[in-house]
Every structure is written in C-alpha cells, then in structure tokens.
Amino acid sequence: MNSHQRQFQIFVLVQSAFMLLDLFELWRTGGKPHLAYFLRAHRRLVFFLFNVWVAYFAIQNLLLMAMPSPETMLADFAATLALPTVAQTSPADLWSYALVALFLLFTYFTAALFDYVIHRWLLHHRRWWFLHESHHLPKVVFNGMPGISLRPYSAVSVFLTYAGTSAATVTAIKLTNAPWLFGWYLANLPLLMLLFTSLGSASHSLFLRRYWVVHRSLRWLFLTTPQEHILHHATEGNCNYGNFASVWDRIFGTYVDPQKLRGKQLEIGLSYEQDFLGALCGGKWKLPAAFRRKYQLAEVCNLTNDKG
Ligand SMILES: [Zn+2]
Ligand SMILES: [Zn+2]
Which ligand places an atom closest to the C-alpha of 115? Predict the structure, then answer.
C-alpha cells in the first residue's frame, strides 16, 4: 500500500467514526425526530448536500493525489542533506528514548507553527481566501458537512505544512547526529497522521462539543479542543487558528478561551451571503436564488443578503 492510499484509508476510517457520532448528535439535538419524517422534510437539502459532498470529495482527493506524499518529501529532504536513509535499529538506551521524546516535541511545535502561519496568514489572506472559504461557509459545524472535514483545496495547506515540517525535522535529525531517528520517524509516520487526522476531526465534532471535560483535558496539552475551534468558525472569529494545537495562538495573542463565552449564542458561518458553488470560485459564480430556495440552502449557510 502506498502512502497516498494509507492517508486515504486513515481519513475514511476516522471520518466515518466521527460522522456517525455527529449525525447521532444532530438527531439528538434536533428533538430525536422520526428518521423517515426528518428525511421527508429535508429530502432536497440532504440530496443537495450529498452531491456537494461527492464533488468536494473528488476535488480534494484528486488534488491530494497530485502532490508528493509525506514519505517522498522526507526522503527528498534527507537526500539533499546527505542523511543516510537506510533503516537503522534505534539503540535501546535512556538517551535514545529521551531523544525520541524531544524529537516528538519538536515535531509537534514545528508542525503546529506551519499550520498556524499558513492558516492565519495565507488561507485567511484576502487573495487566497477562496482556498479556505468553503470551510467557513456552513452555519452548522459537524463532521459530514461538506466543507468542514472535506475541504476541496486542502492539498495546498497540507502540502505546505508537510513540506515545512519535513524540512525542519530532517534538519533536526541531521543536527542531532542520530540517523536512526529518520527510520523511526518514517516507521511511525502513519501513527502521527492518525493522531493529526483524529485531532482535526475531533475539533469539528458536534458530539464532542457538548462535553466540556474534553476541553478541560486537552487544553493542558495545548491540543485544539472542539470548544476552542468553534470560536474560529464564528462570523467574527479571527481567533483560535491552530487546527490541532493552541500553542501558537497563545504565543501570538489570538487565543480566546471558550470558557469565557460559555452559554453565549454564537453566530457561525460567513458574515456575508455565499453558497457551496460561490465558496469554490471566490464568488465568481453562485447558485441561482430559485435553486437555493428549492434545495433549502438557507438552513446550512448564510443567505440573509440574498435578494433573489
Ligand atoms: Zn479558518
Ligand atoms: Zn475548522
């Protein structure tokens, strides 16, 4: 299995689990309606969202497949720095364990920094906003909503984060003069990806958002909690940019503690009118007003300024 397939498998596995939990939570908070009744009342919206989901899924994965895999990037950087890439067994002494722990800490801070910088200054920059707009479009944030976990242009930020982190980590391995660390890193990369994918899904989880114990547990590890990340999706939410770690938000002063806003009604989504087509092309084309009405789009995105 190549790394693209593995990445895809991790995404599908983690997403399926979170989607089931979040759909259950939607049903629970919606007053536990009879499923047949709910589907009848929302059949057009469900049909529309399913099609958008398929389209976003196709774009996301085609672009992700076009980019080099994380393993390829790591191997390329290692070759550039003349780092031996032949797998070497790690010495089982205390220093080696400490080195692995330090290396993991370094990887976490570095990946979190690239994630923060790219998210705050590239994706939220007016010029590149179209790459990220669909992620902020929905008024209802849960795994399964197109745009939330399926981000059509995520390959751009994924590529930049992986490339930056790979360059930094390979340089760190070279400097520590412990080439066996490279083999260890490569062997454990799927586990790290599983962790990052799980954190990314957890931070958008409607199900987990109601459990404040999740926030209280994760915040001490500076891992992004669902309660923190929903503030980033608020219409005025220029805060909490870290997708999986809150450490750089705290350092750069963009961290907002959700406990201070607990119980407050937040307006989620975009502060202007937009739809699932407009969010893909920077508003160049939009769905006709009659189409938006027919497919009940006002239930999931902000169409308040729609005069059509
Ligand atoms: Zn954002
Ligand atoms: Zn988000």
Answer: 1
